[in-house]
Amino acid sequence: MSSIKSISDGLVLDKEREAWLQNWLSKFGAWVYSGRLEKRQSSIIAEFMATVERRDYPEREMCSDDDGMLITKVVDKIYHIDRIAFTLLLLRYAFGSSDRAIARYYYGIAKPRQMVRRNRTVEYRQPSMSTCRREAKEIISYAEYLIYPHLYDAFKNRDNEWKMKNNSKNMLTSLIQ
Hints:
Elements: H1 4-8, H2 15-33, H3 44-51, H4 65-81, H5 83-93, H6 99-109, E1 113-116, E2 122-125, H7 129-176
Antiparallel strand pairs: 1-2
Helix pairs in contact: 2-4, 2-7, 4-5, 4-7, 5-7, 6-7
């Protein structure tokens, strides 16, 4: 199973924060899928996108290039924590994959492990598709929980910098006049 589960400790976002984050990640996913992320950058996301086959999707709402680059910096941190979680996030948001499609992918990469059966015996076996579906959903939820504070702070800091920059320009113009 993914290592990201131990980091987030089973915590989840409330509905309001989850909606805010999913809105931005959906826009970011459309932006990444459109190819606006420059290939010449040594971005982990660009490298991943080069390995995956594209499908045609109807036009989706995208974020701006500035927002996309800001979100890229935050999402790239997940890559260093857990590559499986990173891949599942890209499948969900960039490729718009369904929960079942994500579970199929996760099932394909899941390695056999010790599992407790219903009769309380421990066996070394491949997890079932339903187990993979549940675990993939949990991994995405935990990854979103870890992304939220960093993304929120990144947007907040950028807005504060923009306000300070505009305030300093306004002060200069008022001093000049």
